[in-house]
Amino acid sequence: MELRVLRYFLMVAREENITRAAEMLHITQPTLSRQISDLEEELGVRLFERGSHKIHLTQDGLLLKRSAQEIVDLEEKARAQFTPDSGGISGVISLGCGELASMDTLAQWMSDFCAEAPGVSFDIFSGTADDIKDRVEKGLLDFALLLEPVDISAYEFVRMRPMEKWCALVDEKSSLAKKDSLTADDLAGFPLILPSRGNVRNQVLNWLGLKENEVNVAATANLPYNGAAAVRRGLGVSLTLSLSCRYAGVVSVPLSPPLEHGSVLAWKRGMPHSRAVERFITMVRERRGE
Asked: Are 26 and 18 in contact (CB under 8 A)?
């Protein structure tokens, strides 16, 4: 299975049309069709369902797409780490980040680092903690910015600032929107939208003083914007991180007593790193006085 053919496969999967994919790849349509057929024969499965105007991935095709994308991403990451630069260190540093207030601190570090090493650029992947850690384990990401509590026993890390504060997102027409802060008693009886991550959700439930089966859970969500959209449409009250963002039709109200969590910038222990990554690790340790 050649990397070039995997790129062909991914282009066909994206375009859902052999002719258009061939044009994008600057090869002939018969050549591309033959390469895809050879790949199907090699794997012993059908990767596409052919229609009159579009082709669609089969279940086997969907499985291959995920693996193929990871392989291509790894190849691109490897090339980027060795980009020649006569002026010093160069390459791409990849980070996986949740939507956290501490991203502002990390962004400042990134900006300062680029000023010192203009041959370096950053690739930022946004996702859940589980997605990010999975990509770190596979070598697709160098760093993970993660909300605690999270298992980082296999990682080195620095603790970030500021602390991540929680709030309630409520409909602007709700009586709750008029309050300066909200207690667990204030939220009693309201349907709630809670965090998707189980260990984080448990922390929120502890603040509420309730077990999950005692709460009217309307939904779970892992991104504040999605929770805000659900609030705006009347699904419930979203308990989420306070990111100083404004959402149409929704008001952010602080919690009382405050609920706060820490966050960490982590990297895999014992993993070989590029010169750029090693230099960035040194910088973040210095910024944290370690």
From this structure: no
Backbone angles phi, psi at 289, to 5 degrees: 70, 30
| 207-231 per-residue burial string, b: 16 or more CB within 10 A, e: under 16 | bbeeeeeebeebbebbbbeebbbbb
208-231 residue pLDDT tens: 999 988 999 999 998 889 999 999
Residue 279 CB burial class (10 angstroms; 0-12, 13-18, ≥19):
middle
CB-CB neighbours of 197 under 10 Å: 18
Distance CA(197)–CA(220), nearest Å, equals: 9
DSSP 194: E
166, containing H or E segment: strand 164-171
Q: What residue has token string 């980070």? A: 95
Confidence (pTM): 0.72
